[in-house]
Amino acid sequence: MDLTLPVTRLPGIGESSASRLKKLRIHSIFDLLYHLPFRYEDRSRIVAASSAQAGETVTLIGRLDTVKNAYTRHGKILQKSVFSDASGSLQVIWFNQPFLSRTIRKSSPVALYGKVDFFDRKPALISPEYELINEGNVGSKLIHTARLIPVYPETAGVSSKWLRSKIFRLLSFLDIPEILPFDPGMLKWKEALWSAHFPASYSDVPPARNRLAFDELLLLQLLALLRRDSWRRTPLTHKFRVNNNLLDRFITYLPYTLTSAQLNVVDEIISDLSRPFPANRLLEGDVGSGKTVVAAFAAFIASQNGFRTLFMAPTQILAHQHHQTLVSLFRPFDLKIGLITGSKKIDNRHTSLDIIVGTHALISKSVKLDRVGLVVIDEQHRFGVAQRAALALKGASPHILTMTATPIPRTVALTLYGDLDLSVIDELPPGRIPVKTWVVPDFKRPASYSWIASQLASGQSQLFVVCPFIEESETLTSVRAATVEFDRLKLVFPEFPTGLLHGRLKSGEKEKVMEKFRAGEYRILVTTPVVEVGLDIPAANIMLVEAADRFGLAQLHQLRGRVGRGDIQSYCLLFTDKPTSRLKAMEQYNSGLKLAELDLKLRGPGELYGTAQHGLPDLKVADYGDLELIEKSRNCARNLLPRLGEYPLLRSLLKEDKIALIQPN
Ligand code: ADP
Ligand code: MG
């Protein structure tokens, strides 16, 4: 059976169930098989009716007498019956379930699971779960009682009990093949699925989940490798020639010496650009490590070859900043650099430009421009998206260079970004002074404010205030929160001019506010969390984050990266009413990678990249921390890739839109 078929192909699952299952990200039969319990409930203790004690939760196996409806003194309806087994009998009570009188017939053999308590001063089993035992039961096995019971993630109209029945039927009737064409030295797939859903004992669970986790990682990695393959097969009409003399001149004109990490990456990019297939490189470097100039290098090579570069930033403000940076880096050379803001289309009116700077929106619009040889994408966290978008550029596929300050731990890079080549700038330019970081509990707020005031009064300091993280995308709520904080701080620091920056300001206004802050006219800038990425204002040296506990460590590190860019001591104050040890790690570590790894351990992958939009699939079974399994699956994926055609079953699972397992959120 094709496991990628929709669940509606299964008996007893119609369109309405299917639409409810979508909320659990279950679309295909495969998805249902991989909807694993998040815990198990031990209902294996079977007792005799005569020895059931009040206060105990037990399973009973025997027969039920007729279920009769009755009314309480307050007019509520309840159901009464009597359970008996060889040892004796016990009364059974349900509340407000009148249908039971129809579903349970007299003398029905049943298993009941519930709590024994007193009712009308006599022991009774109260509101038990019941499971009818009849010859028709699949394998006449009990699945809801009398054993370890899987408990699943549920949604409205989809209970664990319902899922349990469907999955049990599926496992019983499906001819479950082995999906791997080799023996990974683990449980068979069929065995693993059975034990993960219906383990005989707790010790059956880990090896089963381990096997399923392996498959999950393997599929992800095969998919990444397939993407890489197909990207590399797209036609490239331009093979760049690199003129070393010109590059040397570019380097000579730089206002600083490149670090050796920057030089290494420049080398990697040069060899990328001289290959006959399009590059797809991810450049990872801590905030302030100097990624922009490296990208400028690549743009320079493209322009030398008569091709233009699209240079994209996540926000308008950053686009402006990049534009300024590039204009000044290329001043000694004859390069035309344009900035496109708002919703303007780019088309052949812009053919005279060598570099076009804009926001990420540039590429989602139809770009009608030929000779685009390179696309630089700054701080885009959904890397796969970038690639797909670049493909939308008609004609030849450009080289892609994506840059991020989000430190991607090795395990994540191995699992998910196998289709990208990774470069790392692991060194900061010399002379940077580490930012002093303090976690500030609420009671120290007044003292902190007077300390900040004294710093500002010295004339050397500027202050960023970042309002609490409310939602990933900037909603009216977070804008309002920033506005309130702005009004409040004007009273706290009346003597210092204060600016307010958020995404709902008109675009011209944002730039005005930024310029005033950059020029030192504003001494304080109040912002929302979304506007801050990548800002480079060397004079700003104090970062104050409100409700810091709501942020991931990697995000806090990003925020902190806004200061510490000049040659004066910088400070980062993390305000919180929950000074946890997680936050304290910020005081201790200055490495983004270290903090990202901690976050990965403590809060899961979602936090690495902000929330909903991170583009990382939530692994269903596997765990980003399991380096050993990740590496094992990666090696297998590499070996399998060339022979994938011989394994139709495995190949069929690698359709990106078919199984939820490998789809980004
Ligand atoms: P990020 O990697 O965070 O994007 P930027 O490219 O904005 O960092 O660079 C941060 C700052 O460091 C800029 O002011 C830039 O001019 C400066 N810079 C970049 N490379 C060097 C270097 N090798 N030596 C000194 N300063 C550098
Ligand atoms: Mg940057």
From TrEMBL:
GO terms for molecular function: ATP binding; DNA binding; DNA helicase activity; hydrolase activity. GO terms for biological process: DNA repair. Keywords: ATP-binding, DNA damage, DNA repair, DNA-binding, Helicase, Hydrolase, Nucleotide-binding. This is Probable DNA 3'-5' helicase RecG. Residues 444-606 form the Helicase C-terminal domain. Residues 272-425 form the Helicase ATP-binding domain. The keyword DNA repair applies. InterPro entries: DEAD/DEAH_box_helicase_dom (IPR011545), Helicase_ATP-bd (IPR014001), Helicase_C-like (IPR001650), NA-bd_OB-fold (IPR012340), P-loop_NTPase (IPR027417), RecG/Mfd (IPR047112), RecG_dom3_C (IPR045562), RecG_wedge (IPR033454). Pfam families: DEAD, Helicase_C, RecG_dom3_C, RecG_wedge. It comes from Candidatus Amesbacteria bacterium GW2011_GWC1_47_15. NCBIfam families: PRK10917.2-2. SMART domains: DEXDc, HELICc.
